[in-house]
Amino acid sequence: MTHVYLWESPDRLQAAYLLLLESLGKADDGSYQLSEVKQQAVASHRPDAEA
């Protein structure tokens, strides 16, 4: 049995949730930022990322 962790391969909904947290944190004067690991995990899910 192989385990897949969120930071390795988030699905579309998990990535959307993390991106929502990031955007809400930015809207609140930067009160929340994604960690480096989370930023890497969602990189391919960002709206401006190449498919």
What does this molecule look like?
It is a single chain. By secondary structure, this protein is an all-alpha fold. The mean pLDDT is 87. It has helices spanning 12-27, 36-42.
Keywords for this structure?
51 residues; mainly alpha; 2 helices; globular
Q: What is the terminal separation in angstroms?
A: 29 Å
Would you identify the regions where 5 or more consecutive residues have pLDDT less than 50? none
Secondary-structure element string: HH
Helix content: 40-55%
Largest sheet: none
Net shape: globular
Q: Overall mean pLDDT score? A: 87
Question: Number of DSSP strands?
Answer: 0
* Structural class label: mainly alpha
Alpha carbon gyration radius: 12 Å
Q: DSSP strand (E) fraction?
A: under 5%
Number of helices: 2
Characterize this entry briefly:
With 51 residues, the protein is mostly helical. The protein is 45% helix and 0% strand.
Task: Describe how the helices and strands are arranged.
Layout: H1 12-27, H2 36-42
